[in-house]
Amino acid sequence: MKYCYQCGRVTVGEPLYCNSCGRSYNVKLCPRHHANPRSAEVCAQCGSRDLSTPQPRVPISIRVLAFLLSLGPGLLLVLVSVLAVVIFIREVIENPQWIVVLILLGVAFGILAWIWSELPLWFRQLVRRLLTRKRKDDRP
User: In this structure, is residue 26 part of a structural domain?
Assistant: First the structure.
């Protein structure tokens, strides 16, 4: 997936050109798709003067800022998760009644896992197929 700094659109895959404005990504390309530097006037491999127009240069500071902004939601999710685990551990230490609840939940999940492992393989595969088919049907 590539982002075009000319038109602001994203093109899926590993494209040579932007689907929206037709600019090439950071290189000049001849009609035979030979990659040339941005400063080239003639293709170094075939000699063609018909080179594509690359997208505008973007300062490195903007690229770094865009990268950091893309990390923002993930970092926020990690921070909230760590905070939730810390609060949960603190509650378990302060209130011993939570330990009993955790043990009961662990036993219940263990029994369910044992029951699932004892079911015939054909039945487990049938359930998995039904669940995956249902998920595929939910997609638009």
Answer: yes
> What does each of the 140 residues of the chain score in pLDDT, given as a tens digit?
788 878 888 888 888 888 888 888 878 888 888 888 888 889 888 888 888 888 888 788 887 887 888 888 888 889 999 998 898 888 888 887 878 888 888 899 999 999 989 989 999 889 888 888 754 445 55
Instruction: Answer yes or no: is 115 within a domain.
Output: yes
CA-derived radius of gyration, the chain: 28
Structural domain containing residue 1: 1-58
At residue 2, what are phi and psi to the nearest 5 degrees?
-130, 145
Examine residue 69 and state whether it is found in any structural domain, yes or no.
Answer: no
Task: Write out the H or E segment, with its range, that includes residue 65.
Answer: helix 60-94
**CB-based burial of residue 70 (10 Å sphere; 0-12 exposed, 13-18 middle, 19+ buried)?**
exposed
Model pTM above 0.90: no
Q: Give the count of domains, the chain.
A: 2
Task: Classify residue 29: in a domain, yes or no.
Answer: yes
